[in-house]
Please model this.
Amino acid sequence: MTIYSFISTILSYVFTVIIYVFILFVIRLIYLDVKKMSRFETSGIEDEACASLRPAKSKVEPTKPLARRYNIYGEAVIGRSPECDIVINERFVSQKHAIIWYEQGEWYLEDLGSRNGTAVNGKRIQSEVILDTEDVVSIGGLNFVFEI
Amino acid sequence: MNINKRIIRVLVAIALLFLALASYLLWFNMFRADEVYTNSYNQRQWESERRVKRGNIYSSDGVLLAETKVDGDFRIRNYPRGRLYSHVIGYSSQVYGKTQLEMSHDSDLIGKGNISISLNDLAPGNDLHLTILDDLQEYAYDQLDGRNGAIVAIEPTTGQILAMVSLPDFDPNTIEQDWVDIMENKNSPFLARATQGLYPPGSTYKIVTSAAVYENGRTTETFDDPGVFKQGDVEVSNYGGEVFGNIDIKTAFEESSNYVFCTLGYEMGAESVKSEAEKFGVNKSLDFDIPVSKSEIQYDHMTDLDGALVSIGQGGLVMTPLHVAMMGAAIANGGRMMKPYLVEMVTTDSGTIIGQTRPSVLYDSVGQACAAYVEDMMIGVVEDGTGTTAQIDGITVAGKTGTAETESGEDHAWFVGYAPADNPTICVAVVLENNGTPGGRTAAPIARNIMRRFLSR
Amino acid sequence: MKGRLTSVNYRKPAYLLVLLDILGFTLLFTAKEYNLNVLYTGAAVLVLFLIMYTVLVAGRMGDKFIMLMVFMLISIGVLLLCRIDLSYGFRQIIWILAGGAVFFIAYVVYYNVKIWNSFWYLYFIAGTVLFVITLVFGDTVNGSRNWVSVKSLSFQPSEIIKILFIMCLACYCSGSWSKPVFGKVSPKWASLIITYIFVGFLVLQRDWGTILVMFSIYLLMIYVYEPDKKLLLMNIGVLAVIGFLGYKFLYHIQVRIANWLDPWSDISNRGYQIAQSLFAIASGGYFGRGLGNGSPYYIPEVHSDFIFAAVCEEMGVFGGVAVIMLFFLIAYRCFKISIMASDPFDKAVSFGVTVMFALQTFIIIGGVTKMIPLTGITLPFVSYGGTSIVVSFASLGIIQAISAKTERKEAADNEYQ
Model:
């Protein structure tokens, strides 16, 4: 066996590993991508796991107009960061402000350590709380009506 | 939405197709690839050959047994000892492939895995050093004197093969010219009788039966031998129709009484006979340097009567001469059967040892006391039994003769024995195929000569 | 399931691809006696990849995964082509360069022209013209008359016809071709007739692989789009009858089936190709003999149809399975694009193109591994071949355009919910 074929034999293992790690990375990316997409798709999630936030009258005025309704499929992070599922680009909203998710028949809300806090029906929340329909959720002072 | 649903169905179908493709590829590689690769039309098999000079093979006493001569792009495999090793080393032909050591140690001989610094030079393969003594091999070959049969000489304490001859044979140097003749020869010269010939071992197998007798605690019994063992529709008479009358087991062994051993086998029962056989490796595959046939008891359901026949080495029992030699060697080695081997070491072209075989125990067949009991009787066989022709002046020889009946044709003459009995260094098994003579007359002297030759070295 | 927002990192797989190319081409560089052309080829692949991928991501030109995987396949292909014969690798690079250009052209044109769905007759006429050209001026290669040479440049019109055929069918499937032809023949029957005309031409050319691909595309498209299931069953019935008659009376098909069942009995002659391919696959083992260690020269047509056998020999069965997985992931992404597409014509076109890729891959890989009878077609993006590469890139451009349309529309929808 010449040196070349020896190196080449070793590299054949390296190549196999590289290609498979590559495939794994791609699969992981596709998985993340699909997961992100499925939040916008109604078909992927059962009907119970759909809810929405409807902006209501607030103490603070938003600088930009809000949407008429924000839909939540399964879970949604609310915040200023463009990575969030519901983006509210206001000064008093933190980058990742709060999260709403659905788990075994209940909707939960949790503050993600925001500066201006999250409140339900006027009471500021400390840990995760269960949401009911028609609850008023305020994100840094902006009020929304939670509707299942 | 209906359309999307159907598109997803097509996607699932395509996924199944691709899954089938990948599974098929893996299946092919697992179960079919070897067969396909070894197809003689696959030029790849000879590629490694073109880049290397195939290694040499030497005997234990340093005689060159196989070498490769390079002539431009041609490689000529030369066997200086001609036919002498045809059933040990085999041949290596571009047309007909490889056999025996040339096949089983191919990757050693072409030096697979060696890293050479040169890029274009012909890389040398590795050399094999066998356990066989060329001198003894040639002597054994002459002793067989052209008769069909096999001789296996083994060192009982290590399992090293000292000589191994099978006849008829062929000349590996001219294999390509002789191929058709050899194939058409009804004596099948391609059959390596020592390792792949299956023979009924005849009375030599009483060695194993008497070990079972010892383990069943029946050593002190005596019998009244009427000359014929009759049970149901089975009738076995002693060799030459002799009637021994009142005898003990030791005498029965020395005189090779079929009546006594059939009776013992019948009474001990099929299970006992079978389990004793398996302690000596019957019914088990043997991993050896070259392909070996499996010695076995060929019954689906073994009855006690079958057990009686097996006890005298007949019936459904067939063994290779190598295995019979190992059986004798196990008794010689105090009941421990050593794993036999042919290749002592593998060295590189420059002599560096890269592989060495260490002796290892194959089976702890019987205990020391049991081996001593059988050995005592085997010494008796040579001193004043059926095997007196195996006596050597000044050396105690232990042995057992055998004359195996065959369904078609003449009897096989058998002898297995070892010497010196108190500290055995060689065990020899001899079989003369369809020779028609008793083992004590023809096979035993051959074994004696080989042992004497070896011990006088 | 608390919200864990992982920012998607597209760079890691790209790095791996670059690493593979660097290692592979450096290895070949030493194998080919330090011929600098190997390095140039490798560098060209890398530069092309980086440029195309950057433009794709920066220009938000739709799906970002397909191009990654396509370049992985291209890298494997070019590595092996260079290893088999440097000149193939070198010429392949030129084709990939052309393919890259065609990719962007196809993307821009398809994205911006909105009236593709109204020209079914143009696609049909163009396809027919190409067929006639092939029959009149074509050269016969390996028993199939499917090459046309213009001066020193030769190409396979059937590759282009496949795309035209898909576009034509998509017009009918999307419902935009609704008017009967000559006032009598409804589009359903007209498209059926077109299919049989094209298949008829292909029979004259003896291009069995393309027939298989084209007819399967037709069947799958009417399966998805045609509510009338009788049409599908009838076509399958006709296919079965034609297949049986072909097996009965056409020597070409008999030979292929016989070779598939038992290539070993006539190894030196008719079974030669497939036997050599199997020898190569069998010698590779799980991890392959290593790039440059194998002997792909024994396989006929190793640079085009049989390249997969060379992949298996030098990169092992695991390498082969990886290639199959890559093709499947590409097909999966394309199917997803087709499912997400909102415009019916886009949906139909992307579905057709996807099915074409997937079937072509399956037919040729299955063929060289003797899983199904062998019919010669190229392995997209891996095999050497100008038309194959350029057409594959063109169809990829169309897919990306459809994906980009969907993504942008979606983004717009989300913003003004």
User: Anything to note?
Assistant: Chain A touches chain B through six residues (CB under 8 Å).
